[in-house]
Specification:
alpha/beta; binds beta-D-glucopyranose; six-stranded mixed β-sheet; four-stranded mixed β-sheet; globular; 781 residues; 21 helices
């Protein structure tokens, strides 16, 4: 409470200061009668010419009026005043008709405060599946629909710009923000981010690609990522490049970290040479919520437009730098122009009359559908699933009381309700083992009432609950196995705090969880009844030590507010699963090439280079628990007719064909993946790289679909650091069409006659230090 009051007082003082500075500016020009007004794109030049230096600087600095607490080095955005709880806003210059625009998170839906003081209305938003769950659909059309639904809510709540999609690469398994991102693969990331951006922006709301770039440790935002130019271009920047080129996002958020020695927000090479020249990007760039820790002039020169959430000192520093001659006012004008060009597109500028009453019921359906489609069936022995509705189910695991529907921190969303798994099962006509259910309710309530397991902190800053040990169910399991038809165990991730990465305690199941699995599986096996595990987790966990004990495993990820309904839709087979993993499940964390280095401090070297995720596993022959692209269905598919056109001779592109037939007994969809193994030449190549994918329409049993994939030169090219160019090296390219990265159904080839230079780019972002990169050439023999 005190924190709130302090903030309110500071906020009043600060706004008075800002107001008086704008007032002074106005009186300085009060001789003019009619100020030019921002009316459209064409009016921008006149408006810039009429702006005072102070006004320009104010536009480049967010409108935050809250102060940073002493013990915080960063505040998650909730600084907007026009829409309470939204992340931030820009400053208005009223005399010139420039409105303030509102920015809100985020990757799982609109994050704003659900209630407001002295206001009986509510402002809930739909909680959609986490991006890694969305990515498991491999369905750009569905992701487009989710983007459209999020945009509708944002627009109706008065938001102009969404701080999403998050699109970093899940290169490190324990990164605490991986679930805010799509995949370990840049092509999947680029395709789905493009779909999301289009879905949002077609509704007249902007998107922000974040966090640009190589931001892969949550525990330390200030780490220096040391990455090769090749890994940057092929892995870490690729998805951003695809989305910039094909979806024209309004904004990009530069990340907190350094890349090869330079802060991302101060890097002209990143923000200008790559983003604006090589690609080129047409929107504006903002900082992450860094509260002015960096060199303002350097940021302005680098091509950073908007400093968020903004501090008055930053305005002063821009003004002073121009007056002292260390910052060219033309740079300031350039940066202002980029922002104004977006402002004229926003709902606020266009005076959109938002209702504050979005279609939450319709969007709940979108969320439920996306959640079900994003689930992945990891195991289904003897076709345990689908289950007949009406069965009696015994539910094990504390997550039946405390499900994990979604993210934390800036990815938090306040939904109108959440459907737990027991509720979802009941909605679907299952009968619950009531005794067991009641025991869990009491067990959780009692533990949460203790000091040891009570909630630590409140709100978005710290939503940490210590993880509960699982209840000892040795006796309950025997009773349940006799009295019910099926046992369902729900496992969640350990609750992490906002500011941390995942820990190994989250990857490996705790002893009490292992014991629960043992007790339940033994009892149900003796009774001849199946056990299904639902993995309600934020990222891959260890499965090999326990998976043989259970009959089926369904990965739900963090599926949003409709968790229970979506799980039930899938369990009864109303939705036939087609989800596939966008991230590898390794056998053991210590198998991973970076396991002894991550998360590191200060300088973190990306030694594994281009061998990220399945690129590593397939090239270095490391077995996985569940490989990239893996996922079962309730039906089976046959692949045939895998071939390429032009007799396998590459010109500027090549077309791959495949036919998929549903040879099972129920309708279903299949995600067909096209991998390429490029020939080693001057550059070494990973064993497999995903170059295209497609999802069939729903195929009835016995029905076929012919699929066609176009691979163009840029998509197939590798990045040659010596030439600073994308090149397609000559040789034979193997095209592998499959149901996953390890389940290849057919291989064909095409050939490239001579080396081809595909695209020359700026020679930038080179590491300052030499380091040893992982190379398969070192591993021969
Ligand atoms: C997060 C961003 C988020 C911003 C505004 C930052 O702490 O890193 O992802 O968009 O806060 O809430």
């Amino acid at each position: 409470m005190k924190k709130k009051l302090d903030k309110a007082i500071i906020s009043m003082i600060c706004s008075t200061l800002i107001m008086s500075s704008v007032y002074l500016n106005m009186s300085a020009v009060s001789g003019q009668e009619n100020f030019p007004q921002l009316t459209d794109k064409e009016s921008i030049n006149g408006v810039i010419a009429a702006m005072t230096l102070e006004e320009k600087a104010a536009l480049l600095v967010g409108g935050n009026t809250q102060e940073l607490e002493d013990d915080e080095d960063e505040i998650i955005g909730d600084q907007a005043e026009r829409v309470p709880g939204a992340a931030g806003e820009t400053q208005a210059i009223e005399r010139l008709g420039i409105p303030s625009i509102v920015l809100a998170d985020g990757p799982m839906g609109v994050r704003i405060d659900p209630t407001r003081e002295d206001d009986a209305n509510t402002y809930y938003a739909t909680k959609f599946p986490a991006p890694n769950a969305l990515a498991s659909t491999w369905d750009p059309e569905l992701v487009y629909e989710v983007g459209k639904a999020v945009a509708h809510e944002a627009k109706e709540y008065g938001i102009d710009l969404l701080l999403a999609p998050g699109m970093n690469i899940q290169s490190y398994l324990l990164n605490g923000r991986n679930y805010e991102y799509f995949s370990e693969d840049p092509y999947v990331t680029g395709m789905l981010a493009t779909a999301f951006v289009n879905g949002v922006q077609n509704q007249g709301i902007g998107t922000t690609l974040k966090h640009f770039a190589a931001y892969n440790q949550r525990a330390d935002n200030t780490i220096n990522a040391i990455v090769s130019q090749r890994a940057l271009r092929e892995i870490y920047l690729k998805g951003f490049e695809m989305a910039v080129k094909s979806a024209d996002p309004w904004a990009v958020m530069a990340s907190y970290n350094k890349i090869n020695g330079t802060w991302a927000t101060e890097s002209e090479e990143l923000l200008t040479s790559v983003l604006r020249q090589d690609w080129p990007f047409n929107g504006f760039v903002m900082t992450d919520w860094e509260f002015g820790q960096r060199d303002t002039s350097q940021q302005m020169n680098a091509g950073l437009n908007l400093l968020m959430p903004g501090r008055e000192e930053q305005v002063e520093s821009i003004v002073n730098a121009v007056q002292e001659g260390t910052l060219d006012e033309r740079i300031v004008d350039r940066n202002v122009r980029d922002i104004l060009e977006i402002i004229v597109e926003t709902p606020t500028f266009l005076e959109y009359d938002h209702s504050d009453v979005p279609h939450l019921a319709a969007n709940a359906d979108v969320s439920r559908h996306a959640a079900a489609d994003g689930m992945v069936l990891l195991k289904n022995d003897e076709r345990t699933l689908p289950l007949k509705s009406g069965l009696t189910v015994s539910l094990f695991g504390t997550p039946q009381v405390e499900p994990m529907t979604g993210g934390r921190g800036s990815a938090l969303v306040y939904p109108p309700y959440e459907v737990s798994i027991p509720e979802g099962l009941e909605n679907k006509g299952f009968t619950l083992d009531q005794d067991l259910y009641d025991k869990y309710q009491t067990y959780v309530a009692e533990l949460r009432a203790t000091e040891e397991f009570g909630q630590i902190g409140e709100g978005i800053f710290d939503t940490t609950f210590p993880t509960l040990p699982e209840m000892d169910v040795a006796e309950e399991a025997i009773k349940a196995a006799n009295e019910s038809d099926v046992g369902i165990i729900i496992l969640t991730s350990e609750f992490g705090s906002y500011g941390a990465d995942r820990s190994l305690d989250d990857f490996y199941l705790s002893e009490s969880k292992q014991k629960m699995i043992d007790d339940v599986s033994t009892a149900f096996e003796e009774a001849g009844k199946p056990v299904v595990v639902i993995l309600n987790v934020e990222g891959p966990i260890e499965v090999v030590s326990w998976r043989d004990k259970v009959d089926a495993i369904l990965l739900s990820w963090q599926p949003g507010q409709e968790l229970g309904n979506a799980v039930s839709d899938v369990l009864v087979g109303e939705v036939n699963l087609a989800g596939k993993l966008p991230q590898t499940f390794p056998i053991d964390y210590h198998d991973l090439p970076y396991s002894d280095r991550y998360p590191g401090t200060d300088d973190f070297v990306y030694e594994e280079d281009i061998y990220v995720g399945y690129r590593y596993h397939t090239t270095f022959d490391l077995e996985t628990a569940y490989e990239f692209g893996y996922g079962l269905s309730y039906t089976d598919f046959d692949y045939s007719n895998i071939r390429v056109n032009r007799n396998g001779k590459f010109k500027d592109k090549i077309t791959v064909f495949a036919t998929v037939e549903n040879v099972g007994e129920v309708p279903g969809r299949e995600v067909v993946q096209v991998y390429v193994k490029a020939p080693d030449g001057k550059l070494e190549k990973p064993e497999l790289e995903l170059k295209a994918f497609n999802k069939t329409k729903e195929l009835q049993p016995g029905k076929k679909e012919n699929l066609k994939f176009e691979l163009d030169a840029k998509n197939l090219a590798s990045f040659d650091e010596n030439l600073s160019a994308w090149v397609l090296e000559k040789g034979t390219y193997e095209v592998k069409v499959g149901a996953s990265s390890e389940d290849i159904k057919g291989t064909t080839t095409f050939s490239v006659k001579k080396d081809m230079m595909i695209e020359k780019v700026n020679d930038v972002l080179a590491p300052e230090v030499d380091f040893k990169r992982l190379s398969k050439r070192d591993n021969k023999g």
